[in-house]
Amino acid sequence: MTESPSLTPPRRRWLRFSLRTLLLCVLLIGSSATLWWNWGPWLPEFVLRSPPDLVQADLLRHGRGLILLFDHPVDKDRRINEIQYIELPSGRIRYSVRSGIGGGYVRISTGESTIQLFNHAPSAQNIPLMDSWNIETGERLDSDRIFHGSRNISVQFSHEDRFVYVCSDFTGERTLLKFPELTPAGNLDELFKNDFDSNDHPIARSGTFSPLGSWFVNFVTAEKVQFIDLKSNFEMRELVLPYGEDTRWRRLVFSPNERVLALEYLPSHAGATNKVMLVGAISFASGDLDPRHRFNSLPYFSKSGEYFVVRNSDDATKEIRRTSDPQTPLWKSQPGPLDWIGDNVLRCDSQVTLLDGATGVTLWQQPFNTQVRTGSITSTEYIALHDAPGSLLLCILNAHTGRTELNTHDWRWSAQCGELHSTEFCGDSSCFLAYSRTDTRIRNLAVARRHSYRWGLASVPEFWLTLVLGAGFLWSVWRDRRLGMRA
Question: Which helix (H) or strand (E) is 114 found in, with range?
Answer without folding.
Answer: strand 114-118
